[in-house]
Amino acid sequence: MLKDRIYKNTPNYLQNFLITIYNIVIYNKRLGGRYKIYLEKFKKNNVLSLEELKYIQNTELIKILNYTNKNSSFYKELYQEIKLNKIQNVKDLNQLPIVTKEDLRGSLNKVYTISKKNGVISKTGGTTGKSLEVLFNLSNMQERFAMLDNFRGAHGYKLGKKTAWFSGKNLLTIKDITRNRFWKTDYWYNVRYYSTFHIKEDFLQYYIENLMKFKPEYMIGFPSNMLEIAKYGLKNEINFPKSIVKAIFPTAESITKEARETIESFFKTKIYDQYASSEGAPFIFECKLGNLHMELQSGVFEVLDTNNKPAKEGRLILTSFTSYGTPLIRYDIGDGLILSERTCTCGNNNPLVEEILGRVNDFIYSPETGKINLGNVSNTLKGTKGIIKFQAIQDSLDEVVIEIVIDKLIFKSNYEEIFIQNWRDRIGNSMKLTIIYVNDIMVEKSGKYRMVKNNIKHLINY
Ligand SMILES: [Zn+2]
Question: Could you tell me which of 62, 132, 137, 71 has the C-alpha nearest to residue 96?
């Protein structure tokens, strides 16, 4: 693009300026309109009782159902045979069919209730390689940012406070890289954007030195990148100063317990996780006591077993209240959830989640043992040392190729044996397993690192 070409040929200070201008325009949109009204409302509602939250949830559900049935020809056709007025609350939702990403993608123009020129386009991440283009109306976008800011605000964050961002935009030029400068800064909002495309061992010391100089109060973005930095810092015994970073807010990827501990111990701070998605899914927020709350004001969370019956653990089916432009009603997002029966004493009465099971669609398939989910794939590291990262690639039913990056000083051949055995425990003995040692694993175009690349999903029928 011409815009990109001009940017790439501009000096560093001007690039910072351009990013600042870009942000001012973007934030004016996000924080304009009804944003402040929403933020005040959600702040006030932080103390609602569970009954009050459920009442709001039912009211919002009826509202979006009626709107969708009237304005989206896709859903109108889908609901032809159903008496919508029989659906009075969340419990009646099971009378409606479940829709998948494929269903929506196939008829997007009929799903939309607004035109592209009146909407804000959001592209979903490419865990499956194909993305879904969702249209938000401006008011819903402002509402979503108000919910997010209400959550981050509970941990002290405010736009304008010094923040390090790790996002999927490639902002660097060749000159930056030769000068070991892996960031750009918006001096108006005090945000420094660190590149997520250059997280290489040789560069990590510059990231850390710069973070120590910049002293961000908050860090936001891909946790996999923060993890690499933290691992490097711990390994090289770099002492990141205490009480600089007040909180870390991961986005876009799910985070394992081990990764969380590593990041928290290096940066000497706490992580507060969230669940959301670019297609407009309802939110799950982590509170100050470390519990995950489903925000009932943002939508309905159904957890279903393989027979589509409500369960404590299973796949997550979502209905969103902030997606009027592209309605998501009983949407199978491809993630799983474990519900919790515990209650929280933090003051927020939204029900708790035990665990978010990440992308249930990111799996390796073994004809012998079935699907091996992302959690189990990451557990193949158990008992090993010195494997910095790996990527499991499946291009055919009978073979898995695993690319691994090792730390040669720590990794020993018996760790390879353990790693292979861990894989065999999961995929069985009949599949071919190929290990390839590589120097690095490329991130996706989106800037995200993927542990699993399954290219044969179409061959698996369940
Ligand atoms: Zn809580």
Answer: 62
